[in-house]
Amino acid sequence: MPFTAPGDVVQVDEAGRLLAILEPSPQRATPVCRHFGTCGGCALQHLDEPSYRAFKRDQVVQTLAQRGISDVEVNEPVIVPPHSRRRAALKAIKQNGETKLGFNARASHAIVDMHDCPVLSPDLFVLVGKLRALMHAILRDGEKADLHLTEADNGFDLALTLKRANTPAVISQIAQRAPLMGLVRVTAGRDPLAEFEPPYLRVGPSTVRLPPDPFLQATRESEQFLQDYVASAVGKARNVADLFCGLGTFALPLAKSHKVHAFDGDPAMIAALDSAARSTSGLKPLKAERRDLFRRPLAAFELNSFDAVVIDPPRTGATAQVEQLAKSKTARIVYVSCSPASFARDARHLIDAGYRLGPVTPLDQFLWSAQLELVATFEKG
């Protein structure tokens, strides 16, 4: 039940909703954010650290067990530090002359005006206050906007969703205020509203120019952990496929010592990766290819040419691609997942095809939420 801890004595209504905590459990902790309980961003700040870690690990254990996978080792979760998230999707609204900016309230479209956040990086949190003033200047009364924020190495990138985003009045306000806020680019869809310099990130040995509203791991710490894990798991494989490669989070570091063929369906991501690879000296051959892996997955005979495959699919998993992997002779598959449920489904398929699942490591990069990532390696035979 939401907001309860193991050992709580509670009062609930006929629908099972929590009314009161009659006797609090010793496994409770004092939430670290003033908005906890109202803001929909966090759900687990009321648990002490041992209970929190157990909840995260059990989430993976139970999800695997539902697919009949119960004989696999599940490691203790890797948890990123507070104040580390470099990406955020926020909402803004102007009502009765007041502008609110923050996450949605729990189970509601209402917006919690953010004045505290132990999740966002310090610089990103400071930006939120400045963006509130910008939105107040831009929005008309009753208007809403979505803001997708990315903290790049040279400033902030803002992808703005607003019906009037391309109007002269809005563009004028952005052009005047953005440079003073550390915004290096503001886009609406794929259209630039203002760009003072291309936002970029250092990825392994390369500098990657970010396309609008790019996909990145939520924190630098989680990205580094995954890069280290993948490099170790791939080992001495000479020829590596990177499926759903994005900007090259794994492809670029691997290309320092491995031949890599990277695939993704997003043309902007592939273009950014290809440009970064071409401008980085000392890499092994790295080919970036646009391919819709849902509609046209790599076939088993194509996969057979790779010594190892890295796969990092979206939340829904990669059913079609996993079916081909299961038929292939690929010796090693390194699977990075943002959904224990779709991972368990895909893992069942690979195990039934003769792959052995090694230890699973949960990765908690969305602190105090129910969301959880994980990484594991499959070996043939």
List keywords for this structure.
381 residues, nine-stranded mixed sheet, six-stranded mixed sheet, 9 helices, 27% strand
Describe this structure in words.
The chain is α/β, with parallel strands linked by helices and 381 residues long. The two termini are 41 Å apart. It is 28% helix and 27% strand. The strands form four sheets. Strands 3, 12, 13, 14, 15, 16, 17, 18 and 19 form a nine-stranded mixed β-sheet that branches. A six-stranded mixed β-sheet has the order 5-4-6-7-8-9, with helices on one face. Strands 1-2 form a two-stranded antiparallel sheet. The radius of gyration is 22 Å and the shape is globular. The protein contains nine helices and 19 strands. It has helices at residues 49-65, 122-138, 168-181, 220-234, 251-254, 267-278, 300-303, 319-327, 340-352, and strands at 9-12, 18-23, 78-79, 87-95, 98-102, 144-152, 155-161, 183-188, 191-195, 200-203, 206-209, 239-243, 259-264, 286-290, 308-311, 332-337, 355-357, 361-364, 373-380.
